[in-house]
Structures are given as C-alpha cells and as structure tokens.
Prior knowledge:
Layout: E1 17-18, H1 28-36, E2 40-44, E3 48-53, E4 61-64, E5 66-70, E6 88-90, H2 96-99, E7 104-106, E8 108-109, E9 112-113, H3 116-129, E10 139-142, H4 149-162, E11 168-170, H5 173-180, E12 186-191, E13 196-202, E14 205-206, E15 212-214, H6 218-230, H7 239-252
Parallel strand pairs: 2-10, 10-11
Antiparallel strand pairs: 1-15, 2-3, 3-4, 5-6, 5-7, 8-9, 12-13, 13-14, 13-15
Amino acid sequence: MFLFVTLHSSRSHSFYLPLKTPSSSLIGSTFILLMEQSCLVVDIGSAYCKAGWAGGNYPLVRVPSVVGHLPSPQNPNPRPGPSLIRTRVLVGSNKLPIIKELPTEFIINRGTITNWDAMEFVWRHIFTELNNTPKDHPLLVTGLLLNDEHCRQKITEVMMETFNVPSLHIGNQAELALFGSGLLTGMVLDCGAGLTHIAPIFGGQMISNGTLVYNLGGIDISSLLYKSLINRDADLNHFIMREAMEDLKEKICYVSKNPDQRNLLVM
C-alpha cells in the first residue's frame, strides 16, 4: 500500500473544527480483502487527484483538480460552478494549455466537492490514464473530504452505478497514512492545499475527540502573497493566477527559523 500526501507550507490558525469520521479498522476484513487483490487507489485532494495501484511506492497519475468549461450550443457562455445544463469540460495535465484559455473551476474547495459532474469527468480521465477498466478491480478511495456522510454516499453511488466497480472501500486518510509507515500508534499531520489535518491514532484507530481540521492550507499562503503584491484579493478559480502564485511561493517563500524576527527579501 502506498501513501499519498500533498504537503504545502502552512501556519497555525486560531479556528479549528473537530473531526468525526468512520474508522478504517472498523471494517478491517474488507480492507484486507481489497489489499490482497490488484486494488486501485484514488486520493482526492483540493489541488490534485492522485491514483495508482496498491503496493506501489508512488501514484502513477496526478491530475489537477481543475476543469476548463467548453462552450456548446446549449451553453455558449459557460460559467464555473454547478449548472442546470450539463457542461462540456476539459480535464488533465496534457490539456492545461487549452484549459488556461477557458473559464476554469477548481472543483474541490476546503475538502468539499462543489461540482459532482466535473468530478466524474476527472475520475473518468484518471481511469483512462491508468489504461484501466474500473469494473475489473476493487477500489480504495481516500481523502480528507470523505469525512462528510453525504459525500461518502455520493461517491459510493457514482463508483458503483457509473463505473461499476466490483467493491469499494472509503478509507480513513489519517489511519492509512500511519499504516503506510508500518505503525499503529502515532500523530498524523497532513498539510494540504485547502485544509490542515491533525489526527492522533492509537492502536490503529483514530481518536476523533482529539482530531482537528483547520480551514487553512497552501492556497491561503498563495492568496496572502497575491494580496500583498497586487493589493487585492485573488480569484481562486482563475487557474493562471493561482498557478503563478503557487510558482512564486515555492521559489521565494520560506519558513523563518525565528518567527518573531522580520526578515526582508532583497531582490
């Protein structure tokens, strides 16, 4: 089993949400069954969706969680966000030059899927990139957003009815991260694009009352950087703007060893 964790720089925040989520170990027999077969693993993240095979050391597919909306006769001027008209969208890293020229939408916000139709297109693209027919393999889905009961039900519906997967396990991300390190007890810190997740694990089960989710992630640093430079709020659905801030952040930003000391960067 491999572990997918997207790390971004982050900072502490005074607001947090307690996290309550089903435990992977509560249905351990199903989990073991999935791991014994040629199981597909899909991790859903605010910035990227990753996928590969259980037992691998790293994901084979990494798809940005962004879509470009194409015009159509039924919808000549598509806009980001859910619509009564099913829009045509482009997904995938190989389509990014075209997507940049279209109205773009990041379909996962703070761990919540905001456009299920577009999310289905992303999953279909992932299965195509893996040269895989999902109905032939068990599927393990991970991601912090899966703690929402409605989200879990919707994913089960789509995977079973649309992609016809033979069996499905929705894993607890923190527990799976620790299992991937060969441990059953420890503390998991996951800093993602939209959320920061801190979870204590004891004996293979997450302690829900001690688990925190901060609505703060790498995108907040990018947004703060943009506002400091341009003196206005960033449009987080504007792909080119968001990509430019991410690139700038990774090249010039750093974590100070002395947080109380103000450091000036001379360019």
